[in-house]
Amino acid sequence: MKLILQGYSGKMGSIVHAYLKSKNHEFIQLLDQFNQDVSIEALINCDAIIDFSNSKSSLRLFSYALKYHKPMIIGTTGFSKNELDYIKKESKNANIGVYVVYNFLSSINVLKKAIKQLSKDSSLIYVTDKHHKSKVDQPSGTSLALVKGINKNKLNFISKRVDFFAYEHVIEINNEFETIEITHRCYNKVGYAKGVEKALSKINTFVGLKTSI
Q1: Which residues, at least 6 apart from 196, have a Cβ–Cβ distance to it below 8 Å?
Q2: Which residues pair with 155 in a beta bridge?
Q3: For 136-153, how does the pLDDT look when each residue is reduced to its tens digit (9 = 90+)?
Q4: C-beta of residue 110 within 8 angstroms of C-beta of residue 68
Q5: H/E run at residue 22
Q6: What global pTM score does this model have?
Q7: Which fold has domain 106-185?
Q8: How far is residue 55 CA from its own chain's centroid?
Q9: Which CATH superfamily is domain 2-103+190-210 in?
Q10: Among 35, 58, 74, 194, which residue is least crowded by beta carbons within 10 Å?
């Protein structure tokens, strides 16, 4: 596929770029904080747009996706509910598919279902995420995704930021009789890039917004 990638020089973007390039995808434009001038020619010729930047830059690029009717995969976190509602509404109006996925690992969807089921009889849930100190959003997008749909009154979020590479989420589910603890650690982000590749294979099969692959 011919692709536009925003955020290619960032930690996640660089991994996605290298992995998809190795799978014979063609990048016809690369954007980052130093180069945000979107090529009209690239927009016309691309098959899809991928974004790993920040919510402000992502929404700006999304406006081009709407104008040129191009599907988009967004791995950026930090969107407000109103912004997600806007993406959902406008992608439908433009007849394009858009993924906004906070974690592209296939295991995350399995964990989400398990946590939702186990939380039904819980009274208190602790959600702890540990990341490198460069990560801005607290709690992380993955933390929020893992407990989406669970009564907010049960939830307590803890965010830890450290000086070394870390990607860890711990969900502690408590009730009167027991505590269940689920730990997820990621050691190699190439798994994320594989998830992006899977999203690319499905991006033209739906219209509107999806938040999981």
Answers
A1: 16, 19, 20, 50, 73, 75, 104
A2: 125
A3: 889 998 999 899 899 999
A4: no
A5: helix 11-22
A6: 0.82
A7: Dihydrodipicolinate Reductase; domain 2 (3.30.360)
A8: 11
A9: NAD(P)-binding Rossmann-like Domain (3.40.50.720)
A10: 35
